[in-house]
Amino acid sequence: MSGVRGEQARLLAKGLQEATEIPAEVWRVTAAAYKADQTRLPAAELVPYAVAFGTALRGFHRRACGVNLRRERFALHKDLQELRGHLIALGILAVGVIGLGIGSLYLNASYKAQRYAHLQEEITRVFRAALPDVRMVQPIVQLREKIHELEERLKAFGGMSGAQLSGLQILHEISARTPPSVTLNVDTLAITTGTTDLGGTTESYDDVVKLKTALEASPFFPTVKINNTKTDVGNKIAFTLTIYTSKTP
């Protein structure tokens, strides 16, 4: 570097050392490199020294104008400030997403609670209409039991499709198949799905056997079983029969 006085050169060396944190000192050549009346070096030869000279000037005076070489794409970014701005934006976005999630959960829970209350009211209404005299404890279980009971009663009377013998058909078939010579007094008659229990009295045990044989002749009574017989008051024979019923042909 030429044209700089010794004191100024030392200041430049100090500033360059502070800027680059690299030891720098003034180095003097043995011959004078510059004279006032000497022709200046060409610009092309001065270019390699421009960066070093600019860095030294920048370190020498931080507020120097026209010496800042870190411009445009080479400019230093304010990383902390930019990062803080991004973090604030992300924080606001996260708060918004969390708020939307909480709001969605609340609306969903509120809708389900309203739906549950509506279903409870509907179950109560149906229960009161179906079982007005029954205390509601477990409405669903109680309604299922009642439906099962009604289905069993319906089957005993032939069902919806008529595939099973109805109670009236069973009574008619027993009456039609009873021999005229048998004096039959019916005391009990229990009709269930698939079986009918008949209890009564006859004049003798032979009458019981005749009744069993006559009933088994029916296409609706494939099996008739004598459960027990005993002599009753007046020397009558008390008996019970189990009649196994079949489906209608």
Description:
With about 250 residues, the chain is of the alpha+beta class. The chain has helices at about 5-20, 45, 50-60, 80-130, 140-155, 165-175, 205-215, and strands at about 185-190, 195-200, 225-230, 235-245. It folds into 3 domains: about 5-75, no CATH class; about 75-135; about 160-245, General secretion pathway protein M, EpsM (Gyrase A, domain 2, 2-Layer Sandwich). The chain has a 4-stranded antiparallel sheet with strand order 1-2-4-3, with helices on one face. α1 (about 5-20) crosses α3.
Low-confidence stretches: none
Distance between the termini: 127 Å
Number of structurally distinct domains: 3
Assembly state of the chains shown: single chain
Shape: rod-shaped
Classified by CATH, the class of the largest domain is Alpha Beta
Number of helices: 7
Q: Radius of gyration in whole Å, from Cα?
A: 57 Å
Approximately what portion of the residues adopt beta-strand conformation? 5-15%
CATH superfamily placement of the largest domain: General secretion pathway protein M, EpsM
What is the CATH fold-level name of the largest domain? Gyrase A, domain 2
State the order of secondary-structure elements, H for helix, E for strand. HHHHHHEEHEE
The overall pLDDT, averaged over residues, is 77
* The CATH architecture of the largest domain: 2-Layer Sandwich
For the sheet with most strands, the description reads: 4 strands, antiparallel
Sheet/helix structural class: alpha+beta
The level of helicity is 40-55%
Strand order of the largest sheet: 1-2-4-3
Overall number of strands: 4
